[in-house]
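Table 4 source record.
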Amino acid sequence: MKKHHQPLTDDELEDLEDLLLDRFGDDDETIEGRDEGIFLLDELDGFITALVSGPVAVLPPVWLPMVWGDYPPIWQSSEEMYYFMGLLRRYQNEIANLLSQQPDAFEPLYSWYEMDRKRYDIVDDWCEGYMRGVRVLGSSWEDGHPKATALLEPVRAFCKETGWHGHEAETEENEALRTAIVANVRALYRYWHQPRGVVPQS
């Protein structure tokens, strides 16, 4: 198997998140109204999942600015840049291959916490990342596609744009929305699957 098709190791996933976080120095403060971009691995997972699931293929020059936001990286070396880009490419290939070849095995990479020996998934950051990926293509995701809009609703329910209304739902509805995220994301990939175009570089 060629290197760019190999899944990332746990150490490489940690490197990927460290590189995202390192865009912010110890003394840096985010400014209200500025876009922090993506700096959490679960948010990146959601973002890339949306990119590979959408109606057209998107080239890196189009979507990378959405990763950086208003805080682009200052690379320490060309080696660091190429290493980071290689990790992103492999991560994108890994998610795309899973959704296309083993969709039932696809699971979002949620962060989580444990309480009373029970695991609780935190879905918000993943959902924010997915919707950020949807916004890369703007209205092409939903205009004239009511099914796609409907399938996005469980994801939107845990995003800032809807006031995280999924958390205000009764326990049963909340659990139903959380469960629907995975099934609907798989369905969205199937909905937008071939043929695919390419978004040109701007």
